Amino acid sequence: MKVQKKMMDITLIAMVALSVAACSTNGQPPASEMTRQAVDISTPEQTSYASQYQTSVFLGDSITEGLSYHDVLKDKNVLAGAGKTAEFALQDIDELVKRKPQHIFIQLGSDDILWPTDNPKEYSLSYYGQLIDRIKVRLPETSITILSVTPVTAEAEKAEPRYRNIGDYNEGLKELSSKVQVGFIDVSSIVSAHPDMYDADGIHFQAEFYPILLDYVKNELGRQKSAK
């Protein structure tokens, strides 16, 4: 019986190996990526940022999602996804309430400015305002800070001219933050200072960018607090 069981175990291992190999050749993540997604590997750096932002949630699109994708923050501290707009983020309020964050950082707009409407900025900011109002009602003790939309490379802007509106959109976010009385942090300067950290598409960022972003946000919050 022991020999039979051993043979069955060997057969099962072989089947798993073949399955992983098949996934890597059929448009699925390679084995190393699947392992990264399945196993929680905490580095000292991740532990540090996870501690600093343990009571925060970052709400945003695929750019914000990089915080958890690159293992800089835990999944519980990031509520983001590709294609998310201010309108779509309204669907996340129940989940935000469940997580009970003390601070919410919102970084939306990269997809909003591409929305097929006559005035994407006006359309988006109306929903952005609704989003903040609803968060305030459901989580009245939670601090809210808007983060500006990150600029793209010249090549990405050339490929999609609507990205030229990022600066104007960020001005709208700054005005909105003043109107609804929430925080605002313009992160454009750190992007300009680290142009080598873009991904190949010139829109998203490599893993090394996100610790810099979190350090900047922390320092800006401290500066703003001191200025009050």
Describe this structure in words.
By secondary structure, the chain is α/β, with parallel strands linked by helices. The chain folds into two domains: 1-39; 43-227, SGNH hydrolase (Rossmann fold, 3-Layer(aba) Sandwich), CATH 3.40.50. Helices cover 54% and strands 9% of the residues. Strand 3, helix 7 (120-138) and strand 4 (143-147) form a beta-alpha-beta unit. It is globular and about 40 Å long. The relative contact order is 0.11. Keywords: Signal. InterPro entries: Ester_Hydrolysis_Enzymes, SGNH_hydro, SGNH_hydro_sf. Residues 1-21 form the signal peptide. Residues 58-210 form the SGNH hydrolase-type esterase domain.
Give a summary of the structure in a few sentences:
The protein has 228 residues and is of the alpha/beta class.
**Low-confidence sequence ranges:** 1-42
Rg, rounded, reads 21 Å
How many separate structural domains?
2
Number of helices: 11
CATH homologous superfamily label of the largest domain: SGNH hydrolase
Beta fraction:
5-15%
The sequence of SSEs as H and E is HHHEHEHHEHEHHEHH
Q: What order do the strands of the largest sheet run in, or round the barrel if closed?
A: 2-1-3-4-5
Oligomer: single chain
Shape descriptor reads globular
Overall mean pLDDT: 84
Strand count: 5
Output the CATH class name of the largest domain. Alpha Beta
List keywords for this structure.
228 residues, Rossmann fold, 54% helix
